[in-house]
Amino acid sequence: MLASDPDIKVIGTASDGVEALAKIRDLKPDVITLDIEMPKMSGLEVLEHRKEFPTFPKTMMLSSLTSEGAKATEKALFLGADDFMLKPKGISNVREAGGEICLKIKNLISIPTIKKKAQPLDKIADVIVLIGSSAGGPPMLDIIVSNLPQDLRAAVIVTQHMPTGGFTAALAARLNKISPLAIKETTNGDVLLQGQVFISKAGYHTIVSSYMDPAGRKAGKIIHTTAPQIHNVRPAVDKTFTSAAEIFGNRAVSVILSGMGRDGGEGTRAVKEKGGTTFVCRQEDCLVYGMARSALDTNSVDEVLPLRVIATRLTEAVCSIAK
């Protein structure tokens, strides 16, 4: 799958961790993909040898869809891995993931790690940015969150469909390496502050509720709920967008990225009906266009945008509201 992309050259393969270390020394690749479970030496053990190399290639972990896989993925990120991808079950599903794995490999080369991060301000967010995505979304999130400015005058909630068990925590940790903004997985009761990006925790709907802080300031607060799935998913983009629209009204900005199904259509309509600003990514930049199309079907979308300008347009929309 990688070799089929004209921008990627596969210079070697390894069948176990010991061979992988030898190939890294000899071939000096830009990027490696690394299974967590491998013969002779696991992927985590390979990462523990990073310090023996003057420079170590950027690393994408391939993780199984289990809670054990999530824990190992978090540890891999702690050990220095740069990204991860969930391995689909069944060979046909693996082949369908070819487009996403190629995008991720190219992102690893193009997106730098952030050395200096802004800290979230202890300032209530008056503006909310809402991002919804599913299949094909993580590589797009890389590009968007890495290009949001340090001084963004809004809170951001990303609702990305992922399995339970710790994968959204791993996604937050991974995005935190490449964004100038602080990124964390949602916890029940989080207050929405300027300059903070929240990744909706898998297994819970992320609801935005109103909140009065001890100083008497009205704010938005995140509430987790295990209410029934919507569109067969939890968290659902529709739940987050609709609840946020009720609290923030015309101070909400939303965007739908790649994803299968119809989650996000009603949420986009809710944002628009409350006076908010709504975007979707254009089809040619999406792996799957179901979610964005569901938003377009509601006639509630202000602009259809190329992926590479979404961060800029989100920032411009926030600035026009927050001035």
Describe the SSE topology.
Layout: H1 17-27, E1 31-35, H2 43-47, E2 58-63, H3 67-79, E3 83-86, H4 91-96, H5 98-110, E4 128-133, H6 137-146, E5 155-160, H7 167-176, E6 182-185, E7 196-199, E8 205-212, E9 218-225, H8 237-248, E10 252-256, H9 265-273, E11 277-281, H10 290-296, E12 303-305, H11 307-322
Parallel strand pairs: 1-2, 2-3, 4-5, 4-10, 5-7, 6-7, 10-11, 11-12
Antiparallel strand pairs: 8-9
Query: Strand order of the main beta sheet, please?
Result: 6-7-5-4-10-11-12
Taking all Cα atoms into account, the compactness measure Rg is 20 Å
Q: Kindly, what is the distance between the CA atoms of the first and last residues, rounded to a whole number of angstroms?
A: 47 Å
Number of helices: 11
The ordered H/E elements are HEHEHEHHEHEHEEEEHEHEHEH
**Approximately how much helix is present in the residues?**
25-40%
- Proportion of residues in β-strands: 15-25%
